[in-house]
Write a structure and sequence with these properties.
The protein is built from 7 helices and 11 strands. It has about 260 residues and is of the alpha+beta class. The strands form 2 sheets. It has an 8-stranded mixed β-sheet, sandwiched between helices. Strand 6 (about 130-135) and strand 7 form a beta hairpin. The radius of gyration is 20 Å and the shape is globular.
């Protein structure tokens, strides 16, 4: 599940008003409810003493998940490369660099760009506890007794992998939101570039400049959540010749 502290009475009223809608839209499979923050012990600080708790959520360890996906693809006979590839059924999932290439094809129009994010992992055993979302930060317990916190959102950057005082501020805020982290040591700091399409939606479909090849890019902050759908759509297109990609996701929608 996920807990979100509620900052004021207006936020509490808004959260309570959404519980019925959540029940209707989620068909009773998941819950959205306002709870006492004290029920979660020292996991979360809330100005009102209340949090939204929902169960329409999941977590994964990004690096381990990607390693598992790569292993599965290779076991199925796919070739995964960080170098340019070509040929039938080649999919260019090339991140922000691929968006910059599309910018060039669009005659200088901005199709997308990279947004830098800095994050950290702390040593703290919160296994089995909910993840937190507050003040734009994600605080995610992992099964290896670590907690990931992030991230910054930087439109302007010089070094794609460096970390700085902006991450210090993220960690400080995370410790204030989650008292369990106040003394937790920082194990690792890192940064990466997220591919943000102009539409903020994924870009999927035939590559406009490489006949017979395809694009799977964009996604930005919803990339992991959308990944199963993206994979299904692209597999249907490449393997079965079935094109179910929504018009607004297609490369030509961004280029037009």
């Amino acid at each position: 599940g996920r807990a979100q502290p509620l900052a004021d009475d207006e936020a509490v009223d808004r959260a309570r008003s959404r519980s019925g809608l959540a029940e209707e839209l989620w068909g009773g499979r998941f819950t959205w409810e306002v709870r006492e923050a004290a029920a979660f012990g020292d996991l979360v600080h809330s100005p009102t003493g209340l949090v939204v708790f929902d169960t329409l959520t999941a977590r994964l360890h990004p690096r381990r998940a990607i390693a598992a996906v790569l292993g599965a693809l290779e076991a199925k006979g796919a070739m995964v490369s960080d170098q340019p590839v070509s040929g039938d059924a080649a999919v260019h999932a090339t991140g922000f660099e691929g968006l910059l290439e599309l910018n060039g094809l669009a005659g200088g129009r901005i199709i997308g760009a990279g947004v830098k994010g800095q994050a950290a992992v702390l040593k703290c055993d919160l296994r089995g506890r909910p993840q937190l979302y507050a003040e734009g930060l994600h605080i995610v317990p992992h099964a290896d007794a670590t907690v990931a916190v992030g991230s910054t959102s930087e439109r302007q950057w010089d070094d794609p992998v460096s970390t700085d005082e902006q991450l210090d501020a993220v960690v400080k805020r995370a410790r204030a939101i989650c008292p369990s982290l106040r003394e937790a040591p920082v194990l690792e700091r890192w940064a990466g570039i997220r591919p943000r399409a102009r539409s903020r939606a994924p870009i999927l479909g035939p590559h406009p400049a490489r006949p017979g090849e395809f694009i799977a890019n964009g996604g930005f902050k919803i990339g992991f959540g959308m990944a199963p759908l993206v994979a299904t759509l692209m597999a249907d297109l490449l393997l079965n010749g079935v094109d179910r990609i929504p018009p607004e996701f297609r490369p030509e929608a961004s280029l037009s």
